[in-house]
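[agent] plan:
  1. take the single chain provided in the ticket
  2. run structure prediction with default settings
  3. attach structure tokens to the ticket
  4. add a short note for the reviewer (M.T.)
[agent] executing step 1
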Amino acid sequence: TGEPDDGTQFVSMYQKQQDIYPRAVKGWFAAWRWTFVWLTQIVFYGLPWLQWGGRQAVLFDLEAQRFYILGLLLYPQDLIYLAALLVLSALALFFFTAVAGRLWCGYSCPQTVYTEIFMWVERHIEGDRIARMRLDQSPWSANKLLRKGAKQGAWIAIGLVTGFSFVGYFTPIRELAQAAAAFAVSPWNLFWVLFYAFATYGNAGWMREQMCKYMCPYARFQSALIDADSLVITYDAARGE
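[agent] step 2 finished; step 3 output follows
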């Protein structure tokens, strides 16, 4: 319309996320990742069921204000020890990142672990990369509906078990299981089971790497903790990738 072009470009910050179809990989690092998946999930799902001296081995009883950790009995005034432990853990995390790269993000972060589990389910139901791309591009059919429904059902089941196990750290898990079997779970327990299940389902099933890019606070520290010699996974511009 006669207005001068000053070269200004408008970039939308709300573009639709491009679908990513990772293929199954094998190798030394992939094997180590699955080793940590097994280790972390055996501890997470199994620890609430472990008994110690006639009681649950790890239980954070907020109502009674007592925190049981194996043979330790802690009260609210003892939380200074927990705070010290968290500070030491954060410092250790920063130290390992500075020395050896993104070990936490690649092998032990819950977002990484559950995304790996959900992707494993996806591959076994819908197929590997090419098969999933063809399935998404194909019109809806009985086969597509069955596979998509089975995947979503499996994801929801994993989320519910995860939410149940999480609440089992704050409510005796055996009592919680009996209440669930009788459909008599308290409203607050039900809320937190469903909340954590939905968070697991949404984060690992749908958001995946977007959680790391936009929401993870630890990702903001990465540029300050790594240098040119740190181990990172990236593209080699010199090879034209």
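[agent] step 4 note for reviewer: The CA atoms of residues 164 and 207 lie 22 Å apart.
[agent] ticket updated
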